[in-house]
Amino acid sequence: MNEAFVPVQTLLMAHHRRLDEVFVRVQKAAAERDFQTARGAFRQFSVELRAHIDIEEKDLFPLFETATGMVQGPTVVMRVEHQQINASLDEISALLGREEEISLAARRLLSVLSAHNQQEEGILYPLSDKQIARADLESLEKTIKAKLAVAMR
User: CA-to-CA distance for 6 and 20, rounded, in angstroms?
Assistant: First the structure.
């Protein structure tokens, strides 16, 4: 039996929510100075967020740019934001490794992520689901599910 098609917007927005939940656990553990738990939760968060970024940059963005012709559009800005996010992930990892306070670095990361996710959820994902060919979307759905399944182990 074939499973029902799940749009890009549904898949990636659900993963945003999951990432939000994992990061709350990181912040809570770090605030309680339980650095072992914080590091474990952060490793999971970082692996999943980097996989999410990889999916967007290697799989979604090229399809979006081809389908819409917007090669100098929102994906350019999002790639820059991805670099900022990765730098924040590295910073927080180093702070947790030294068992130092992460609240300022976490606020910086959340500031970028919040605006970034709003753009993706409000513009990129809905437009992708409308503009990318159905066959490409179905293939992308399988890729997203497979890559996130590996990251969420």
Answer: 21
Reported as a single tens digit per residue, the pLDDT across 53-97 is 999 999 999 999 999 999 998 999 999 999 999 999 999 999 999
**Nearest by Cα to 55 from 67, 44, 64:** 64
CA quadruple 117, 120, 123, 127: dihedral sign: negative
d(CA 37, CA 17): 20
Cα 40 to its chain centre, rounded Å, is: 18
DSSP annotation of 132: S
From the list 91, 65, 97, the residue with the least C-alpha distance to 78 is: 65
Is the separation of the CB atoms in 96 and 30 below 8 Å?
yes
Please tell me the distance from the alpha carbon of residue 5 to that of residue 129, in angstroms, as a whole number.
11
Which tens digit of pLDDT belongs to each residue from 13-31?
999 999 999 999 999 999 9
